[in-house]
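Can you give me the bound-state structure? Components:
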Amino acid sequence: MKNILHLIRKDFKRKWRNPVVLLGFLLIPVVFTFIFGLVFGSSEEVILPKVQVLVADKDTSIFSQFLLTALSQGELKKFMKIEVVEEEQGRKLLDKGKASALLIIPENFGDDAWEGRRAELLLLKNPSEQFLPQIAEEIVDTATLLFSALFSVFSDEITVLQNVISKGELTDLDIADLSIQVKNRMEGVGKFVFPPVISLKQQTVSEKEEEKTSSLSVQGYILPAIAIMFLLFICNIVFEDMLREKEKGTLLRMSVSPMKLSEFIWSKTLTSALIGMLCTFVLIAIGRIIFSIYWGNIFLLLLIIICLNIMLAGFIAFIYSFIHTERQAGAVLSSVILVMSMLGGSMMPVENFPPFIQKISQLTLNYWGLRAFHKAIQRDPFSDFIPILVGMLGAGIFFSFIGSYFMKKNLRKGLLK
Amino acid sequence: MLRIEHLSKTFDTIKAVDDITLEVQKGEIFGLLGPNGAGKTTAISMIAGLLKPDSGKIVVDSMDLESNLRNIKKIIGVVPQDMAFYEELSAKENLLFWGKLQGVKGKILGARIDSYLKVTGLLGRERDLLKKYSGGMKRRINLIIGLIHQPKLLLLDEPTIGIDIQTRLNIYSLIKEASSQGTTVLYTTHNLQEAEELCHRIAIMDHGKILAVGTLEELIQIVGEKDIIIVKGKFSMDQGRDITALFKDASVLSLKEGKIMLSLEASKKMPLLLEEFFKQGIGIDDVAIKQPNLESVFLKLTGRELRE
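Here's the bound-state model for the whole set.
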């Protein structure tokens, strides 16, 4: 044990003297999280593209004008851009992908609505876009619903107005009569509308309130996901160094000292786990300070960090027990880490995979590490963590022992050039 | 101090070490001289416990290596050909690390480090990172690491490759100093001059076998008291063979087209030899007379020069 501590101290000193690679691997998850946060985050400064909607108004009645005005006013104006076009021109523009949707207001739309007949609007969506046409559809759908409701509530008044207009002349008495009817109707529905029974209050959630919630933010998902992938790369650096020691002759020299080869291997595994733990602490602190991620119970978090890094270091030790040269390590480890990260949710949510791949995902280290972090953020009960923590620790110890056994044989073979 | 009996090691079909037997006394500097591939490093690796012999026995300080490997490792020091240390650490940090790994601690270790740095002229540079050191300075540190725990047996595998004469002499004096304090040194080299200058006894190795063992004087006896005569000129191998056949007491060390090396009493036979060349109308470019040395011994034993 004394030799192991002595070797670990030496490796830490060496890493401290040359921290560039480690810092690089620490920086990447932070940069990734920052970029993903910008793209998918809830910051007010995020500028979303406007939904370009073409409108072919073949009706040109007061109702179609009213609909057009409604779509291009108020809040809608912020994220919808309405452009009135001829139908043919609109279709061509849509084919060229110049707009997200084309709304066609058919002829007699106003008359049909006026006379209580079924009036239909036609919305053509751009097939090459995924989200923006969906937004346009939702907005137009809501607008038509409101129009429908308006016609239903004021159907009597509309009929009166229709009769009055059909007579061709509008007397003061007609106007007074219509005004009284509208007033009575408004008074009837007024108690439901003024003030509204249901209202939406907008508020930006403050930091303290966020702590009380248990939802997973974009950053809360991304940072641990990318971090686990890069922790694997960090473990890899330590074991790469082991091959360099073999190549350079320092391992040979140590082998002629009273130190046991197994002590050397365990020192590398523990150095790898300890450096991984330190890096995780740094990333977690950055996550808290820069991205306001609330990581949950600190004691639990500590357990996750320890178990996770033992698992990662053990796994890399296991892989290295079959590797003889740095070139082999570069090829094998990069492939293993990237594939495992892809399947394990470090690059995209596992829930997006087909069910059979989701089962494979559960065999990856990233999956379990990520689950532990997400559960911590979501403040799940401690009992949920026990199997994950035990699993990670068990896997780490298992891999470490198997790795140590095979690596000893592997290193002995390659000690003499 | 070191006894090797019938030691053999084969890699696939190549016999790297072929039944070698030798004994090295306490405080002796023993040279293993041979060309690359002679089996020197394989032999030294088996003595260091890095390689298991196929057969034979190694005894270090009265302990059988096979059954006492851990104890023997405590009294062995190794200086490999490579610069086996950490360039990201300073000289002092390296020496502290290797010293502690060998079980030396505290003030004793500190005093030894200072003493070795002083002897090697590196005191004052001990806090510099080794990557900033010159090649010669690195070689000195490489040697100090092997000596820091004052081993009973020091194994040196060609420790002076590619260094200047000043560093070489510094290293020699360190080795001689260690030897005078009782450390047994096993020194592999393919440098004849180095072996002559440094070693008390030398074993000449080739193709895994020990061809001869002895002091420099004893080895030279193999070639005899005669001088070494080297003649260079325009002659074929057959012509050279015909001429040397005329001198029954000469022993041919090397014969090539245009060059002949033979052991002969120069003062008496030299004029006759040259006369034979002139008689046959052979033009002579150069004639040299040398005292017998390790090179001539090696030539005599192996039939080739060491650098071939």
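A couple of observations. Strands of chain A lie at 51-57, 80-84, 101-105, 122-125. Residues 382-414 of chain A form the longest helix (33 residues).
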